[in-house]
Specification:
Length: 99
């Protein structure tokens, strides 16, 4: 073999070794960027434990209609312990006097 052929062979071998070392050290993103593609997206690991609560709102809740005072003309809500009267009218009613 001639001297020129052996020098070319050594240069090509050294070049190939450098290319292999560069490819081994490169990341997947760098290699795909050379080809013109984007790196694949890796799915996140599934969360352990209780699954997250679903946020579901069906709409507005129905308003609670409290019973009104039994006294004529009074529009206040009935008192829970007032036997159908608001607190003010319960104190003056016969129901309070029976207690």
């Amino acid at each position: 073999m001639s001297q020129l052929a052996s020098v070319i062979e050594k240069a090509a071998d050294a070049f190939a070794q450098e290319i292999l070392a560069a490819v081994k050290a490169a990341t997947l993103q760098e290699l795909l960027a050379l080809e013109g593609r984007a790196a694949p997206v890796v799915a996140a690991a599934k969360r352990r434990g209780r699954p997250p609560k679903e946020k579901v709102r069906a709409g507005k809740r129905a308003k609670i209609k409290w019973p009104k005072c039994r006294h004529k003309g009074c529009t206040k809500n009935a008192w829970a312990r007032g036997k159908g009267f608001c607190g003010e009218h319960f104190k003056t009613s016969k129901a309070a006097k029976k207690k």
